[in-house]
Amino acid sequence: EVQLQASGGGLVQIGGSLRLSCATSGFAFADNAIAWFRQAPGKEREAVACFSRPEIRLIYADSAKDRFTISTDSATHTLYLQMDKLEPEDTAVYFCAGRSYVGCSKSIQMYDYWGQGTQVTVSS
Length: 124
Fold this sequence. Notes:
Layout: E1 3-7, E2 10-13, E3 18-25, E4 34-39, E5 46-52, E6 56-59, E7 68-73, E8 78-83, E9 92-98, E10 113-114, E11 118-123
Parallel strand pairs: 2-11
Antiparallel strand pairs: 1-3, 3-8, 4-5, 4-9, 5-6, 7-8, 9-10, 9-11
């Protein structure tokens, strides 16, 4: 059984940093893509970043390309999202999601496994 559990969210001031973690079990990074999505209040869930072998790391949100970094630790089966220079627009619930295939996608429907989400709030 595949399980994903996101953590690391919290309340941070503008310009601050957070590192989100997604602990996985039963999920093979070598064979499957894994991504971060976020959903702000009143908005649709959107793709933020994706990781897929071989060493594909994509940051989808234009506003985050110079501020967010996606990475993995194969030894601990953990996905990370380092978020720097946070802005109020980054406020959302962040989810990690896994596919049953390699290859990144921005489409929610392409992901088969979802974590429970972690709240990120950026205050002014």
